[in-house]
Amino acid sequence: MAPQLHRDPPFRAEHLGSLLRTDELLNKKTTFEKGQGSKEELVAVENQDIKDVAELQKKLGYAGISDGEYRRHMFWGSFFPGLDGFEEVSNVDPDVFRPYAPDVAAFLEEGKKPGESVFCTGKIKHVGSTYIDEFKYVASLVPPEEVKNIKLTLAAPNWYHLRYKEGYAYPKEVYATDDEYFADIAKAYQDELQTLYDAGCRNVQFDDPNLAYFCSDKMLSGWKADPLNVISADETFEKYIKLYNDALSKRPADFHIGVHICRGNFVGSRHFSEGGYDRIATKLFQELNVDTYYLEYDTPRAGGFEPLKELPKHKNVILGVVTSKFPKLEDKEEMKKRVHEAAKFIAEGNQISLEEALNQVGVSPQCGFASHREGNAIDRDGMIAKLKLVREIANDIWPGQL
After folding, report:
1. 386, 324 contact by CB (below 8 A)
2. 3.30.1490.20, 3.10.129.10, 3.40.190.10, 3.20.20.210: which CATH number matches 23-397?
3. Is the pTM of this model over 0.90?
4. What are the Cobalamin-independent methionine synthase MetE C-terminal/archaeal domain coordinates in residue numbering (predicted)?
5. How far is CA 398 from each of CA 5, 95, 355, 362, rounded to the nearest angstrom?
6. What angle do CA 107, 210, 116 make, to 5 degrees?
7. What is the pLDDT of residues 234-280, one digit of tens each?
């Protein structure tokens, strides 16, 4: 049987999961981290703010609602520290990081150390989900028939591999090769996905800046010049595709899996990487076994829509043509033209009609509004205006559809 297009989810109007926090929540988290408040007080504020933002999303017409990532400090959450075999380490020597990885380079340019550092220290094993309570709380806020629509965002399985120089991602006495290391990470994700599925989750989105880094000429040049690397960047990209496919190999057919190819979204709306999808498009779209790609297309740094010729007929693309980084509103009619332009390349690549190609498409902001809890250079009113614009674009192109 030929692979089928998975719909609803994804939806015609989407957002990328993270939403701006309230000042009260930010202050409460800071207070708690200073030891000046109880966990119960923090959770009470988180719960109320998640309830409020879930209502906001419903009011704005979004079906795939999230909790805004309100319980997290950063977009990836706590998956890796929650595994046996990983430890969070502070005051790490910057020399262990690849200085040409775009996010690392951005930190080093500003004289700062890269953010949260989690290292493999022993055999990796899943010992319980750190995402499950986030999902269950949002599920308690929606009718039973809408639980399947809830979007839960997950850390990319390759996140703590590319950041570190060759030889630093894991101890050689624990794993002799990348393949051994990746096999246990894949097994941990299989266990995580099954746990989430058993709780009713049917819609996840991996947030993956690393895959976008393989579009960056600066990163690729740095990789090639690094004498420690034993395989090429292209070979590493292929290993990451296999890691994903192994991690997803046991997922049920009704479990929607998407991946957001992120170009960076840090405090003050800082982006990290540039370069079109052209050089990774064939492998990304044809070999990665996901249902949906959430792609950033808000600025010229993402290149053109031509790579979408490689998108198969059984996969979706959500076009991030509206920026989440700054408050200036895009022109709705211009954005609709861009969506149709993208669909023309999908149609050309698959030799199908424009209408058929549009059935594979949705629209969204290009990234989250607060991948880091401090958020982008946009306020709450600006965020709501952007979400309204996305919904209006979707309504015009796909009237009557979620």
Report:
1. yes
2. 3.20.20.210
3. yes
4. 180-378
5. 17, 50, 10, 9
6. 45
7. 999 999 999 999 999 999 999 999 999 998 655 554 556 678 999 99
